[in-house]
Design goal:
CATH class of the largest domain in chain A: Alpha Beta
Order of helices and strands of chain B: HHEEHHEHHHHHHHHHHHH
Oligomer: heterodimer
Radius of gyration of chain A: 22 Å
Shape of chain B: flat
Number of strands of chain B: 3
Helix content of chain B: over 70%
CATH architecture of the largest domain in chain A: 3-Layer(aba) Sandwich
Number of helices of chain B: 16
Distance between the termini of chain A: 35 Å
CATH superfamily of the largest domain in chain A: P-loop containing nucleotide triphosphate hydrolases
Radius of gyration of chain B: 25 Å
CATH superfamily of the largest domain in chain B: MetI-like
Largest interface: A-B, 28 and 21 residues
Number of helices of chain A: 14
Largest sheet of chain B: 3 strands, antiparallel
Largest sheet of chain A: 6 strands, mixed
Order of helices and strands of chain A: EEEHEEHEHHHHHEHEHEEHHHEHEEH
CATH class of the largest domain in chain B: Mainly Alpha
Chain lengths: 317, 385
């Protein structure tokens, strides 16, 4: 568990972060979101002591981070940033091996770990390991950036707008991959972003910041249903909130037994793992108020109606 | 007809025409009554019956044609390289003949025709070499082999009758002077690196240090070298007279000490400013990632910052190296030693070939140094690609 207690950082008279309190449970993805200059990056950098707080404490699993030298602390925390910052003079292999080498792992351990991570990111060892970063696409570079951050098996990873520079398609694919990897490894991630879609897609908890203050922290659903007046409700959007809410849940949560509807061979179908937003989109596209829901094996396992979707997305009273 | 014209290499054509004119119009060698007096030019028309010229001439023609019309770079390079070697052989052979019925003090010296051809053929070869886009190490090896071939020709005694080589054989300490030349260059650059690189890093980190240091170093650069030697002579000779112990270590108003000190001061600006520029150009994301992953300050410096700034730093070293090889020659005037000694002796005796004996090795050293550093820069840049 990560606890930020009364964290404040001033630059001269300006308080970049003002008395911030936040708890992030182990195994969660927490998104710090806000406009640029709201203090979200400063907050992140105080967790690995790239910036020291003016006052307040950061506890990781109950231990004050100031109890150890900054270099040692940072080697235990994964760190991935927007520009990626791969070392251009070192191969993909050497880049990933950076922190394990700093920690003095044996070359067998490092070799095994690099293989493991490239596997995890679905990148072929033989074709990627010995390339220089300049020979990689933007998405591949960012994947290697994530692999490098995960190299020394950290329990916590800090990410500063890691997908900001990528095209929308690549960004979405990497977000999904990151979510899978995070669930697989059970690590905690604190992620800085200015993109509410990204926060909703990835995070278990969203912390909204403005002017150095924490305005609201909540699960995505709660944030969409009950945003605080003003900045937060502007951020989560007006009418678009309905669609964002739908995108939070999968069809399997809301589907009804197939027998309730008269399905025929012409009824369009959709996979149960898709989101409710996907279901609504398909209903509009196919002009069909009811969809057949299929399981992984392709068998019909239920049905979803537009009526039900509409009721879920309605404006909170 | 048009398609042929379109295939003409304009640079090749210009160089070819110029070298053809030089060969026909300018004297290849001069026949002098003795070492000092100017001689008479001997043109190709008086030499061409010589057997080796009969091989040289067709090869020369082929070189010009291939430079003008051919897209095949390798033949262009090889033919012009072979033509130059044959010119050296042909000239060597013809001197014996020219000197046959001359008085014993008569000399054959190289004429304006030869130097022009050397320059133009050199440009043809350089042009082909650049267009070949070879990998850095093989290119360096190729140039080394070619220079080695020329040295072998000279060492074989082929040119021993030519005035320049006679001057060389008169100088017993030619190679020692070369060593001394290099020692002066290294002796000024190594301390400049030891002080300039850390200073450049400081300039990168602190704008205030930069604002204080760079203008001073630029001002030093503007002082002409002879004025600088003069300026340094006064305090150094004062030092030497007040502390006799110092002069035993060679610290005197004239000699190596002011030369080294002046070259050291000149070297600082390119080293400091290129180091600072190299560090300024580093990607901030790379540095932030290095820090965020837990590299210590020293690890970041040695493993990330220095390797990435190295190409820019090396181009500073290239400037300093070629500059100092030339400036050491000037230091010959104040008794610093090195090839400059021959230049000033030769000027004093109006013996042109002795001046050349000082000039040519200086140019060659600068050329080799520049080429070596270029190879290093290419290798370090390839690291990041």
């Amino acid at each position: 568990m990560i606890e930020l207690n009364n964290l404040t950082r001033s630059f001269g008279d300006h308080k970049a972060v003002d008395n911030l309190n936040l708890k992030v449970e182990t195994g969660e993805i927490c998104a710090l979101i806000g406009t640029s200059g709201c203090g979200k990056s400063t907050t992140l950098k105080m967790i690995n002591r790239l910036i020291e707080p003016s006052s307040g404490t950061v506890l990781i699993d109950g231990e004050d981070i100031r109890n150890q030298p900054p270099e040692q602390l940072r080697r235990k925390i994964g760190y991935a940033i927007q520009g990626v910052g791969l070392f251009p003079h070192r191969s993909v292999y050497e880049n990933i091996a950076t922190v394990p080498r700093l920690l003095g792992w044996s070359s067998e351990q490092i070799d095994a770990r690099v293989h493991e991570l490239l596997d995890l990111l679905k990148m072929d060892f033989d074709s990627f390991a010995h390339r220089k970063p300049s020979r990689l696409s933007g998405g591949e570079q960012q994947r290697i950036g994530v692999a490098r951050a995960l190299a020394a098996k950290p329990d916590l990873m800090l990410m500063d707008e890691p997908f900001g520079a990528l095209d929308p398609l690549t960004r979405e694919r990497l977000q999904l991959e990151l979510k899978q990897i995070q669930k697989l490894l059970g690590i905690t991630i604190i992620l800085v972003t200015h993109d509410i879609e990204e926060a909703i897609r990835l995070a278990d908890r969203i912390a909204v910041m403005d002017g150095g203050k924490l305005l609201q922290q909540a699960t995505p659903e709660e944030l969409l249903r009950n945003p605080r007046e003003g900045f937060v409700s502007n951020l989560v959007g007006g009418e678009e909130r309905a669609l964002r809410l739908l995108s939070l849940r999968s069809i399997s949560d809301l589907m009804e037994p197939a027998e309730c509807f008269e399905l025929n061979a012409a009824t369009p179908s959709i996979e149960a793992s898709a989101t409710l937003r996907d279901a609504l989109a398909r209903q509009i596209w196919q002009q069909s108020p009811v969809l057949r829901v299929t399981g992984e094996n392709g068998d019909t396992c239920g049905a979803i109606s537009m009526e039900r979707l509409l009721s879920l997305g309605q404006r909170p009273e | 007809m048009l398609s042929v014209l379109r295939r003409v290499d304009r640079l090749g054509l210009t160089l070819s025409l110029a070298s053809a004119l030089a060969l026909v119009l300018l004297p290849l060698v001069n026949l002098q009554p003795n070492r000092i007096l100017p001689g008479q030019g001997v043109a190709l028309s008086q030499l061409w019956q010589q057997n080796s010229f009969l091989i040289f001439l067709p090869l020369f023609l082929l070189a010009l044609l291939s430079a003008t019309f051919s897209r095949w770079l390798w033949p262009r390079l090889m033919i012009s390289a072979a033509a130059l070697l044959l010119l050296i052989i042909a000239l060597g052979n013809s001197t014996t003949l020219l000197l046959e019925d001359q008085p014993p003090f008569a000399r054959v010296s190289l004429g304006s025709g030869f130097w022009t051809l050397l320059l133009l053929l050199g440009l043809l070869m350089t042009d082909a070499l650049i267009k070949l886009k070879m990998a850095p190490l093989p290119r360096l090896a190729l140039v080394a082999i070619y220079l080695g071939a020329i040295f072998a020709l000279l060492a074989s005694g082929l040119w021993d009758q030519i005035s320049l080589m006679l001057e060389y054989h008169n100088q017993e300490r030619f190679w020692q002077q070369g060593g001394r030349h290099l020692v002066l260059v290294a002796g000024s650059i190594l301390p400049a690196l030891l002080i300039g690189v850390p200073l450049g890093i400081r300039c990168h980190r602190s704008p205030r240090v930069r604002a204080a240091i760079l203008p001073v170093l630029s001002l030093l650069q503007t002082i002409p070298s002879l004025a600088m030697f003069g300026l340094l002579m006064i305090p150094l000779s004062l030092l030497a007279t007040s502390f006799p112990l110092l002069s035993e270590f060679g610290i005197r108003g004239i000699g190596a000490a002011p030369a080294l000190l002046a070259l050291f001061l000149y070297s600082l600006l390119p080293i400091v400013s290129n180091t600072a520029a190299g560090f300024d150009g580093l990607d901030p994301a790379v540095l932030q990632a290095a820090k965020g992953m837990g590299m210590s300050r020293r690890q970041r410096l040695w493993q990330v910052e220095l390797p990435l700034a190295l190409p820019v730093m090396l181009s500073g070293l290239r400037i300093v190296l070629t500059m100092n090889i030339g400036l050491v020659a000037v230091a010959g005037l104040i008794g610093g030693g090195g090839y400059g000694t021959y230049i000033f002796q030769g000027l004093g005796q109006t013996a042109t070939d002795l001046v050349l004996l000082g000039t040519l090795p200086t140019i060659l050293l600068a050329f080799i140094a520049a080429m070596a550093i270029d190879t290093l820069i290419a290798l370090t840049q390839r690291e990041t690609r």
